[in-house]
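Session log. Operator J.P. requested a structure for one protein chain; no other inputs attached. Running the standard single-chain path with token output.
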Amino acid sequence: MKKQLIAISTGLLLSIGLFAQEDMKVEWTKKFEHKAERVGTGLEGPNEVSYIATDKEITVFKTSDGSIVWSKRYKEMVPRLRKIDAFAPFWESDAIFLFDYKLGKDQLAVVDLNTGDVLWESTIYQGLSSSNITYIAEKKGFILSLEGNLTFVDARTGEEKWETTAFKGSIATSTFVDGDLVALNVSPPGLKGLFKGFKNQIARIDMANGDLKWTQTYIGIPERKIVTGEQVYKMNIEGDKVFLTMNGLQVFDLKTGATLWSAAFDNTQGGSKGANGSYALYGTVADPLRVGRDVYIVEKTKKKKFVINKYDVNTGKNLWSSPEFKAAEAIPNIFVINDKLIAQVGGAVEFQSISISKNSDGTTTITRTVGTTNIKPFGLMAFNVSDGTPAWDSEKFKKGITNAFVDGENLIVCSGKSLYSIRYSDGNVNYEEDVKNGGVGLAVEILKYKDKIVVVGEKGVSTFKISDGKLIAANKYKRSKSESLVDNILLMRTEKNDFAAFNLDDCSYVMYNAKKDSEQELSQDGKFVWAYEKKEVTKLKTR
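Structure written below.
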């Protein structure tokens, strides 16, 4: 009887994993007159556009069907622009900035993306790039962060509306509220010498005249990820308060700019930078967790030890502090379930790296990598939300943990080798299931989809029932990283920019293998992959 059960299980697993995989279906393919050395993919929609370009010419086409909208050489549009060093499309404004850098004699032209007409051009703005231009949709204009001032110009004419010298640096992030702009500044790495007298500022700017209604100093550095460029900070306005999540949490009064309270600390997440490249870790510390009037923040003490502090979100009063985590190097996730706060110690975090190597022929090869790595030591600990005292400590995750998510009154956790449903109240195990049953190797991370646990493995994707941990479906693929989850489609990307779009209802997938010396982009809605290959552009469906 035992042998019979094993045979049935094996047969089920094989049937689950034997889908005939197909290439992604082509929406359309177009061959253009010139190469796609620089590309820009716009939004979906009947009137939206994208572009391909070289140093001498640009072609703009409809994102929907690839039909050419216009194609021009730069010297036809602006005679003195014979070549272009950089592009900065601002899709929402239907305009693109073209830059010709000439050592203190920079020139720019702003072109209508829909017509190819030059809206305006200038030789007076020096040191501009996409890093120090911000489009303000509500006012239909651009803020230019210049060496001596902040200048606001009309998007269509370039007419200067106002300037101010009271705000230094580029705008890292901003929010438009009641006719004003609440903005956070940053000095981009390549532009540090541009902004003299730079200091950390968060300010409220009157967009009618450029006056600063208030300015305040913030703590930390608004960093972006070194490969993908994603922000690792965020600012949002709730009621009469401005919340800045960066190196902890900083709270400002929206009307006056006064610092109401802060729980900020040195949150250096590890990494290095040198002649051979750079390396950085992201997500080693959990974001502040808001639950009603309470906010839980992972912080470091003066001894560089982690603690969790509970604050009143309105007053900033410290309600309690947990005991120090004696050996933790990372606390990437915290959860609150009823009367328990549960902390994940160690586990999977994101790394991004840029490596630079010299070839024997004197050329240089730059390799960009995005992936995950595990930070030790590992563990799972719970505290009472009433006073921060320890409630329980699970021994199941001392040897490994990837990540976790909440399902009702249970925490679903993966050790890399096994899936667990953990009871929030006491840490006891509801069930344990071997990840290898999915046939896709060890787990890299887990995700929640409807009533399923999605396991992103070393060799593919598998799904298990949340209720009892039993295997539902699985399919093998190359070693890859989850890119995005849109509806029922999980997008996976390899280091070489190959894509697979998994249907999580049955784990079938369609795939695309990138060609050498090509470039790929994923649409914002996750429905298409764009392949730019020499003079050819292909739009592929992910479902």
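Operator note: The longest strand covers residues 364-384.
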